[in-house]
Structures are given as structure tokens and as C-alpha cells.
Amino acid sequence: MNKRFRRTTVAVLAAVVLPVSMSACSDDGDSSSNEGSDSKKSQSEKSGDSSGSEKGEDAQAMDGPFGPGCATVPESGKGSFDGMAKDPVATAASNNPELSTLTGAVKKAGLVDTLNNAKDITVFAPTNAAFEKIPKKDLDAVMSDKKKLTDLLTYHVVGERLTPEDLEKGSYETMQKDKLSTAGSGKEYTVNDMSKVVCGNVPTANATVYLVDSVLMPEK
């Protein structure tokens, strides 16, 4: 009788304990799995958010003017980015203090109306500092020769609007009928492998302007 009682007791305990134990193990496994899944999901979301944020910031930055030379552009008035966007390119350039030498050259060559009336062009605009790199004697000689001056200035004009992406690696015919080349990426670009863009992607009413630190010289 005692033996039968013991057997019955053991059977009852096994029936109670085993399911509870297995359920606990199963819960631990699910909890661990869920925690791991949640952790991976959280890390993935963070990684995705960071990547998306960085791409968004880069795209936003490239939508407007960029480059160290942009810091010298007035914050307000006709010479500011907002002011230049409202005027055709020759007029816009005349209101920018960094382009006063270029503006004077454009007037001497009689190109104000030509540039202002052109549609969807790109102008690589040499800054005052760019013109200062040319020996005064040579610059004066060009300034006094209307044909040479016209050739020089129209070499800085491309007959289409170029985006920063277009500048990454390209070759474009100019208004002067010679070609210039561009290269670079991000926010650093060069023209003809020697003139650096110091303030790029500046919009005007009829053109996109890239301020460059050296005057471009046509081969023809």
C-alpha cells in the first residue's frame, strides 16, 4: 500500500512540475529572442535614421550656395544671395562686391545685355582676387583690347545651367566656342584643373554662378 501511494505521489508531482518547468524555459527563450530582436531593430532604426539624416543634410546643403567664399557675400540687399536671385546675371554680379573687377570688364566688352538676355546659362565668375593674380601689365593689355576681352569673358560662360553634380566630371562648350573641363565632388570643384570654385551654385534670374579663384584662359 505504501509503495502504491509513493508511485501515485511521484506521478502527480511529475505531472505538475514538468509542464511548469518547460513553460518557464519556453518563456525565457521567447524573452531572450524578443529582446535580441528588439535590440537589432532598435540598432537598425538608429542606423537608418542616421544615414537618412546625413543624406538629407547633404542634399539640403547642395540645394543652395556652398564654399568658403560664400562667407564674403552680403547677408542682405541686392548683393546677397536672395538679391542676386532676382536679377539677371550681369546685373546680379554688379551688386556683388567680390565681382567688381569682372563687372567692369563685362561693361568694357559690351556684354551686359548679352549676358542679361541669355537663358539658362552658367557663369564661372572670377573674383577680384582672381584678377589680381594676373600681372597688371598683362591685365591692362587685355582690358584695352575689346576682342581679346570678349573672348576671355565669354570663355567663362556655358550655355546651360550646370548643377554641382554636372561638375563632377565634365567637358562643356563655352560661349566663346572653346571647351572647359570640370572635376570634383562634394563641395570641392575645379575648372580646367587649376581654378577652384570658392562659392558655387549661386542662382540668378537667368543663370547659375560659380565664383572661381583664377581667371580661365581659352586656348583658341
Automatic annotation (TrEMBL):
Q: What SUPFAM superfamilies is this protein classified in?
A: FAS1 domain
Tell me a GO cellular component. extracellular matrix
Name the Gene Ontology biological process terms. Answer: cell adhesion; extracellular matrix organization
Question: Among its keywords, does the record have Manganese?
Answer: no
Regions of compositional bias (Basic and acidic residues) in chain numbering: 37-58
Is this entry keyworded Signal? yes
Which keywords does this chain's UniProt record carry? Answer: Signal
What is this protein called in UniProt? Fasciclin
